[in-house]
Amino acid sequence: MSSPIKHIVMWRLRGETPKERMAARIKVKTLFEGLKGRIDGLTHIEVGLDVSDVDYACDVVLLSEFTDGAALKAYATHPEHLRVREELGDLRIGRFQVDYPVRDETGA
Fold first, then answer.
1. d(CA 4, CA 42)
2. Nearest-CA neighbor of 63 among 102, 105, 24?
3. Is the pLDDT of residue 41 over 70?
4. What's the domain range around 34?
5. Would you list the DSSP string of 34-51?
6. pLDDT for 64-105, tens place per residue?
7. How far is residue 108's CA from residue 106's CA, in Å, rounded to a whole number?
8. Sign of dihedral through CA atoms 51, 34, 97, 65?
9. Residue 85: inside a domain, yes or no?
10. Distance in angstroms (rounded) separating the CA atoms of residues 19 and 68
């Protein structure tokens, strides 16, 4: 049996002014949070907006969890996920990702 998997993505977003960047952050947050309950195998989704304002920080982080690797793979091509990606277009200028299996309290 395969274990749950966490999928974490961070983005840098377009925007010339702080107001434009905040609007971009809110758009990403709204669209991804709208996936909740729409994709089989997606058990948790959370979107955080950076408040540090340091120049090397990402603007948005997506924390999600899937029942297993197969569910994560299916998410990549799910029509709802593809719709979100299309709506965001070229708003994202940098992307970083980490996927890792969730371990239980025993480390298994």
1. 10
2. 102
3. yes
4. 5-101
5. TTTTTSTTEEEEEEEE--
6. 999 999 999 999 999 999 999 999 999 999 999 999 999 865
7. 5
8. positive
9. yes
10. 38
CATH of residue 27's domain is 3.30.70.100
In a domain, 106, yes or no: no
Are the C-beta atoms of 59 and 24 separated by less than 8 Å? yes
Helices vs strands, H then E, count in the chain: 3, 4
The 3-state DSSP class for residue 99 equals strand
Closest listed residue to residue 70, CA positions, set 21, 17, 7: 7
Does residue 44 sit within a domain? yes
| Structural domains counted in the chain | 1
| Alpha helix positions (H), the chain | 18-33, 69-76, 79-88
Taken in order 88, 76, 34, 29, is the CA torsion positive or negative? negative
pTM of the model: 0.90
Report phi then psi at 29, rounded to 5. Answer: -60, -50
Give the integer Cα–Cα distance in Å for 45 and 31: 11
